Amino acid sequence: MNTMLHKLTLLALIFTTTACTQAASDVTGMIPTPAIDLKPAEGQSSAQVVLAGGCFWCTEAVFEAVPGVSDVVSGYAGGTKEDADYDKVSAGSTAHAEAIKITYDPSKVSFGNLLKIFFAAAHDPTQLNRQGPDSGKQYRSAIFFADDEQKRVAEAYIKQLSDVKTFDKPIATTLEKLDTFYPAEEYHQDFVKRNPNHGYVQQNVPQKLAKLKKILK
Questions:
Q1: Which residue among 2, 3, 23, 64 has its CA within the 20 to 30 Å range from the CA of 108?
Q2: At the topology level of CATH, where does 4-216 sit?
Q3: Please, are residues 84 and 138 in contact by the beta-carbon 8 Å criterion?
Q4: CA-to-CA distance for 46 and 29, rounded, in angstroms?
Q5: Is 55 a catalytic residue?
Q6: Euclidean distance between CA atoms 147 and 149, whole angstroms
Q7: ∠ CA 172-152-48 to the nearest 5 degrees?
Q8: pLDDT in tens, 13-28
Q9: Any idea where the domains of the chain sit in the sequence?
Q10: Which of 13, 50, 55, 65 is catalytic?
């Protein structure tokens, strides 16, 4: 799914489409690296994290372009199996958030640095139950931690960002215990790759990828 060509194609959107004006102010030049992070176990080459930051098309596109990330799946987290359906979730009638499951190599990119990208490039963590043009709890900012260690690092990083006033508004990101991640319908997977000329994609993705490029320098 995440070939180098795919990553370059996503980054090329930065220069070929109009940047979105609804995203958060650019904090990429001031956001600190997490002071507390997870260290990979000896020989560990794969780990996962589930994040929610608005429309999963956009967050998927950002993290698919991150070196060290091997797979990103769009889906739902926070609700039940019966409610893991796009029509139900997008109507705001479930406890689910649109989320992504990121599989990455912790020897190449750390959990903390994925959080840095999440806060600085993938979405606006100060928006409560919305993201840009999308409104409702299904578009909330959330870190679905799999264990106490992920929770510890995420809590520490949110405190670190708050203490140095990285954002001009309070961080609205919630920490939620991951129960089950439910993959979304097939047509949502790799949506930006498959639909680069889609109006929503052109309106919302390029600025996020521009911010990511700054972080990866």
A1: 23
A2: Peptide Methionine Sulfoxide Reductase; Chain A (3.30.1060)
A3: no
A4: 29
A5: yes
A6: 5
A7: 85
A8: 443 333 333 344 578 7
A9: 4-216
A10: 55
